[in-house]
Specification:
- This protein is mostly helical.
- It has three domains: 78 residues; 31 residues, no CATH class; 81 residues.
- Helices cover 83% and strands 2% of the residues.
- The chain contains seven helices and two strands, in the order H-H-H-E-H-H-E-H-H.
- A two-stranded antiparallel ribbon has the order 1-2.
- The radius of gyration is 50 Å and the shape is rod-shaped.
- The termini are far apart.
Length: 225
């Protein structure tokens, strides 16, 4: 039992010394007015621990808060000064590669140590610029795809329109052929009733009409198949 008490006191003294050393390191740093009382109580708590005395509830609470505050400050200092060698190991890159990337992307990776507080916004700014560039490329790609579709649609409409013209001309030619047959039959009747002169007039008119229809149905544009 005595050994446990001694070990507990030794542990408390160890924590007290650590807090005292941290307090010395952070003595030059500004402290908020509401924290000054905690530092006074923590100092008193350390002194009581060194004397082997029990701490009051207020002293224990103040000591915990001060230790937490100093630990946070120490962590922040460590984040602002990551050794370059350690960063090289984390990144899996060579020093030269990191230097080239830092110069190309304007990243704060120069020097013997790296400040993560400066690096974090620089990295996210780089990602934001890349995202914006990717979105711009995607929009341009969609625009080009729409243009391509419109061009294909216009070509198809043009082809269909030209085919439709050909079909209309073919229909006219076929229809006129039927009409010509009817007129020729009528010409035969005119020949019987009014003689060869009347038939010749009708026959000449029919031949002229046939030439006209042929010229219309054969001079149009070529059709794509």
């Amino acid at each position: 039992m005595a050994k446990k008490k001694k070990a507990a006191k030794t542990s408390k003294r160890g924590r007290g010394k650590a807090a005292k050393n941290a307090a010395k390191r952070d003595a030059a740093k500004p402290v908020a007015p509401e924290r000054l009382e905690d530092f006074k109580l923590a100092a008193a708590a350390i002194a009581r621990q060194d004397a082997g005395l029990d701490l009051t509830v207020r002293e224990r609470a103040a000591l915990r808060r001060v230790v937490k505050l100093l630990a946070g400050r120490a962590a922040a200092d460590a984040y602002r000064a990551v050794p370059k060698k350690l960063w090289v190991q984390w990144s899996g890159r060579q020093h030269q590669q990191i230097a080239e990337q830092a110069a190309r992307h304007n990243l704060p990776l120069a020097g013997a140590s790296i400040d993560l507080e400066q690096l974090a916004p620089a990295v996210h700014e780089l990602l934001a610029r890349r995202d914006a560039g990717d979105k711009k490329q995607r929009r341009a790609g969609r625009a080009l795809e729409l243009i391509r579709r419109e061009e294909l649609l216009l070509k198809r409409m043009e082809r269909l329109a030209r085919q439709r013209v050909l079909l209309e001309r073919a229909s006219v030619h076929d229809c006129f052929g039927l009409v010509a047959d009817i007129v020729r039959k009528a010409g035969a009747a005119l020949l019987d009733q009014f003689g060869a002169d009347a038939h010749a007039i009708l026959d000449d008119a029919l031949e002229e009409a046939v030439r006209l229809v042929d010229s219309i149905t054969t001079d149009g544009p070529d059709v794509e198949h």
